[in-house]
Amino acid sequence: MSSPKRQIAMVMDLNKCIGCQTCTIACKRLWTRDEGMDYMWWNCVNTMPGRGTPRDWETMGGGFTAGDARPSRIPTRGDFGDAWEFNHEEVFFGGKGSSAHLQIKGEQPDWGPNWDEDQGAGEYPNAYYFYLPRICNHCTHPACLEACPRKAIEKREEDGIVLLNEDRCRGYRFCMEACPYKKLYFNETRKISQKCIFCFPRVEKGVAPACARQCPGRVRFVGYRDDQNGPIWKLVDKYRVAIPLHPEFGTEPNVFYVPPMSPPRFDENGEIDESRPRIPDEYLVSLFGPRALEALGTIKSEVAKVRGGGKSELLDLLIAYEWKSMFGGFDRDPATIEWTKG
Questions:
Q1: What is the DSSP letter of 86?
Q2: Which residues, 6 or more positions from 270, have their beta carbon under 8 angstroms from its beta carbon?
Q3: Whole-model pTM?
Q4: Which residues have CB under 8 Å from 232's CB, separation 6+?
Q5: 43 and which of 27, 28, 122, 277 could share a cystine (Cβ 3.0–4.6 Å)?
């Protein structure tokens, strides 16, 4: 596989995500409304700690160890969780008044994309959780691409976006098995795999992906990895506060995260206890590797500098006073474009 000329990437600041799922719906409305895609959430937002989407994906395997493919398994439809069907007709048009209540029709589910939403971990008053938005990582070393015997998956030369050619796919699902992040789906109607496309038709027109553009919390930064005037290079390479999820999976993701800072703990007397963080360091390290603590140390240092009267380019960047500063030039208004269906 040849290296792309440039690599587009995304950074998500987990300190600003409020779990509103606007990104999820923005993606759903654009890309996964066709037949066979009802259970697909190319963008999902899970509560952490949690079992995630698909259920227990972090322990399913895939990716590489020292360059060798790791054993894995294909997530089942039940692991993802089916789209639930509700009795809307009965409630809204059945003429039953207040005697009819909204409920799931048919067999009751035992899992769904946000089944453990807002549960988290820890004990009162030191319980904790945070939100983890996820899309395809458009990896530098994509396991899905290497696993496909049909060569249906390619990494675009111009921007490094990983795409799946649906005309070449025969639905073998080796890609689903190989991806350690389990961000590919199988369309049982069309018998093909499908995945996030990083909104490439928008990117080609200078528009940021819908999940980023619609985010009310200004969580997501977009741009090229090598653009030293853009937000990605500054967050990933200059300040090193944005790091990949599960770097040990060996695929070199191009989606990065600013790890969450902990709220203060309380001791047995109800006093603030600053001796240790509420979100355990070892948990963040298990997600983002040892660089998570380095990144948090850098942010805390910059916060202290500003509180002392200084200025911080890093904090100004993370706060994102002006939304266009987040998109590395992909800030064109999509309403000004005449979109045509190819």
A1: B
A2: 125
A3: 0.95
A4: 9, 10, 11, 221, 222, 223, 224, 225, 242, 256, 328
A5: 27
Contact yes or no for 142/181 (Cβ under 8 A): no
d(CA 218, CA 16): 7
- Which amino acid, 100? A
Whether 93 shows a pLDDT value over 80: the answer reads yes
Q: What is the pLDDT of residues 216-268, one digit of tens each?
A: 999 999 999 999 999 999 999 999 999 999 999 999 999 999 999 999 999 99
Averaged pLDDT of the chain: 96
Structure tokens at 44: 């999902």
Bridge partners of 224, per DSSP, are 8
Return the pLDDT at 233. 98
Residue 99, judged by CB atoms within 10 A of its CB (0-12, 13-18, 19+), counts as: exposed
Helices (H), 119-204: 143-147, 174-178, 200-203
Q: Which among 73, 74, 99 is positioned nearest to 87, based on CA atoms?
A: 99
Per-residue pLDDT tens over the stretch 1-27: 678 999 999 999 999 999 999 999 999
Structure tokens at 119: 């549960």
C-beta atoms surrounding 297 within 10 Å: 11
- Do 303 and 315 form a contact (C-beta atoms < 8 A)? yes
Residue 193's DSSP bridge partners are 186
**pLDDT the model gives residue 1:** 67
Cα 35 from Cα 31, distance rounded (Å): 11
Query: Using an 8 Å Cβ cutoff, are 183 and 195 in contact?
Result: yes
**R_g over Cα of the chain:** 21
Both structure tokens of 47: 């509560």
